[in-house]
Amino acid sequence: MNGVFHFFILALITVSAFFAIWFKDLLSSVVSLAVFSLLLSLEFYVLQAPDVAIAEAGIGAGLTTAIYVIALRGCKALKKSGGERR
Amino acid sequence: MKRQVLFLVALIIVVGTLWGGLSRIHQFGDPGAAPMDDYYLHNAQAERSANNIVTSIVFDYRGFDTLGEAAVLFTAVCSVLVVFRKGGHN
Amino acid sequence: MYSLSVIVRTICDVFAWFLAVFGVYVIIHGHLTPGGGFQGGAVVATLFAFLLVAYGGKKFIPFYKSSLFSWFETVGLLLFIGTGLVGLGTTFFYNFLAGQGGLFGSTVPIGPNSGVLNSSGTIALMNMAVGVEVIGGLSLILYYMFKGIRLYEESGSEETGHDR
User: Fold this and answer.
1) What is the 3-state secondary structure (H, E, C) of B2-53?
2) What tens-digit pLDDT sequence spans chain C (164 residues)?
3) Least confident interval from A70-79, B4-13, C116-125, C153-162
4) Would C114 be classed as within a structural domain?
5) Domain for residue C160, yes or no?
6) What's the whole-number mean pLDDT along residues B49-64?
7) CA–CA separation, B13 and C115 (whole Å)
8) Half-sphere exposure of residue B48, counting CA atoms within 13 Å on the CB side?
């Protein structure tokens, strides 16, 4: 049972990592990376490391996604203004 | 053609080393003999009176590491503040 | 960030404070349950990302007192180093409070048990110091990045969401 669960989570991690690279739209890629991080935290929990799982869920799935989205918006705004400000 | 041969050689080297390393890893839930682990497991609760032994290692026995981690976070905040500072020269 | 729709904002109002309480719980019970200062601080900092995404920058930037959180960062780091320095009579980071009675000083029974909150000496103090520092640090990173992005967007049009 545990082995099947492991295999399932690891397969989903591989799929989400593949989609993070495959998407041309960067926002979809960031969302796929968040899913990757959430599944990784589940895998840490299954491997009996709840400390690391909480840190991964908080930072990887929450904060990193927000920071990436803010950075993407910054790139878009910079491109629109021609990159001449500052 | 040459690139493909190079890729194949690199693939064989990487897979070979990974496979060699992973086949010698210990079983899950069955770590090898480590005297330090046993010391922590048997004495941490009596010495530091904390139930969470991971925390008592991170914040007490190895407190210096955590000091470095806090310093890294402080440096990250400082560098973000430097990059995104107000005004600049425009 | 645009301000998102009413559904998202209502869910944010309901669940954001559970998130804050859970983060503070993880920090305070760091020496009893899984987690600790860093993990709990990251969970509380996720609250600010949540508020920023749901309410947008126009409401978030006046709400967020950046000077308060710089004080959090400073005080947390200084408290952490100071707690280490007080134990310098024996070694750096010596646990001088454990098992002495008084503040965080009660002893725990050996073996599997549910634990005593008022135990573990400087470990609990350092958990709180690191937790406060991580709350300040991670939310300041979010805040400064978002403010820096707004500098570029000032030349553009007003913030117009796709659903508001």
Assistant:
1) HHHHHHHHHHHHHHHHHHHHHHCCCCCCCCCCCHHHHHHHHHHHHHHCCCCH
2) 567 788 888 988 888 889 899 999 999 998 888 888 899 999 999 998 888 888 887 888 888 888 899 999 999 999 999 988 888 888 888 888 777 777 787 878 887 888 788 888 888 888 999 999 999 999 999 898 888 877 666 554 444 444 43
3) C153-162
4) no
5) no
6) 85
7) 50
8) 27
The ipTM value here is 0.80
Residue A56 placed within a domain? yes
CB C112 within 8 A of CB B52: no
Question: pLDDT for A45-68, tens place per residue?
Answer: 988 889 999 999 988 888 999 889
Chain B residues with CB under 8 Å of a chain C CB are 45-52, 54-56, 58-60, 63-64, 66-67, 69-71, 73-74, 76-77, 80-81, 83-86
CB contact at 8 A, B53 and C116? no
Residues belonging to chain A with any Cβ–Cβ distance to chain B shorter than 8 Å: 47-48, 51, 85-86
Domain, as residue range, for C33: 6-106+119-153
Q: Say which of C50, C138, C155 has its CB closest to residue A85.
A: C155
Binding-site residues on chain A for chain C (CB distance < 8 A) = 50-51, 54-55, 58-59, 62-63, 65-67, 69-71, 73-74, 77-78, 80-81, 85-86
Given a contact as 3+ CB pairs under 8 Å, which chains touch B?
A, C
The answer to whether position A72 is within a domain reads yes
Q: Do C133 and B70 touch (CB under 8 A)?
A: yes
